[in-house]
Design a protein that fits this description.
Keywords: Signal. Helix 4 packs across helix 5. The protein is an alpha+beta fold and about 180 residues long. It is elongated, with a radius of gyration of 19 Å. The chain has one domain: Double Stranded RNA Binding Domain (2-Layer Sandwich), CATH 3.30.160. About 25% of the residues are buried. Strand 3 and strand 4 form a beta hairpin. The protein starts with 5 loop residues before the first helix and ends with a helix.
Amino acid sequence: MRSVSRRTVTAGVAAALALAFAGCVSKGDISLPPDVAATIRYATITVDVSALQAKGLSDWASLIQQATTAQLTKAFADQRTTAKNGATLQVVITGVTLTSFVGGDGGDLPMDGGSSNDYLEGDAFVISSTGEILAKKHILLALPAEEAGAWYLPNIDQMRLVNLSKNFARWVQHYFHS
């Protein structure tokens, strides 16, 4: 009987996960050409966390909304306008997951416990002043939980949520900023 190396199994699992995520990350996306992105001025930036509130995560939702809005406001400061005919940048957060273990890797394979990643998922839209969707991007963000700080800090969960929110906003900036 031929044995299968751990490296082969890991490569196979990684390839399967890449294929699985490739479909859901780009599904329904509408790109914004760079020359168009440069001309857009945003009158409004909104972050909708109602999906999280509906799941009973009101405290988390509030923190995510505040941190994401603050980062987006900063990132798009040079494209803001007070004109009523400006576009709207809308972010809709649909999911958040904080891993139960912070501070290390559970192993390379799913049966080893996987890694300790936190996730934030949602959609970002650029909407014209007439209500037309000019661009849409689905974003599934995964970050190592320990990136936000040491596991033993008393406010580590809040720090992890803020870290996810700021990085999510940076991806929105990457896709829609001129």
